[in-house]
User: What shape does this take?
Amino acid sequence: MSERKPVHIIMFSGGAASAYIAYQTVNTYGKENCKLFFTNTLWEDIDNYRFMNEVAEYIGIDITERIDGRTPEEVFYDYRFLGNARMAKCSEELKVRQTLIYLEELRDEHNLEPILYFGIGPHEKHRAENLTSFYEHWPLEPVQTRFPMIHTFREDLDVKGIIQNDWGIKLPRMYTIAEELRPDLAALGFKGFSHANCGGRCVRGGFQHYAMLYAVWPERYKEQEEMEENFRKHFDKNVSMMKKDGKPYTLRQYREILEREGVEKYLFKEDVEIPCVCSFS
Assistant: This one.
C-alpha cells in the first residue's frame, strides 16, 4: 500500500458541491493526479449530463464513468425488493458496488492508492462519519475519505453562486425546475429539488420530494407510480416506497390526495427520509 501513488477521486453525480470540490482538488494536486468519477444509474435527468460535461471542460479533466447496465427498477426486480427510504439496493448496486470495483482496479491494475472526496456539507456530518466507516471496512483495504465542505471550506461558501456567476455554468435544471415549469410555486419559495440525482425519481424521496415531482413533472411521477404498482402485482407484495403511520403508502394513494387537496399543502411537509449516497456524490 505504501508504494502506491496517491490518486484523488472526486465522487461526481452532477451536484454543485462536488463540482466545486473537483475544481479545488485539481488546482491543489494537478489534473494528472485526479479523477472525476461518475456512476450512471441510467435514470439521470438529461440536463445533469450537460452540467457535468461543462464542469469537466471548465476544470480540464475527463469524466471517468462506470455503468452497471441496469436501471434501479431492474435492480428491484433482480432482488425482489422495492427500494424505499430505509434501504435502496439501487444505490448499493449501481453506485457503491461500481465504486468498489473501480477502486480495486486502481490498486491492482495501476498501482494507485485512491483517496475519495465527497460533496457533503457541514449539516451532514453524521453521514460523512457513516461513509468514512463504510470505506474503512468494506473494501479489501481501507480507503481514505475526505469531506472538504466540512473540513476545508467555510460554512457559508456560496458554491452555486460561484459556479453560475464566476464559472458561467448554469446549474442542473433540477435545482430550479419550478422557475421554468411552475412559476406560481417558485413565487412561494419552491425553486426545485434538493438534489439532482435520478431525475427526481429517487426511491428515498419523501412526501415533499414526490409532491414536487408531481407538481413539475407529473409524467415522471406517473412512471414511478406505475413501476410501484407493477412491482406490487408481479410479486404480490403489499410494499411501497413511502410509509404512513408505519404502513405502506403507495404513490397512487398519495397522488389521489394531491389531486384532491392540492399539491401546495404538501410542498411544506418536511421530509424525514434519508437521501441515499447518490445525493452526496
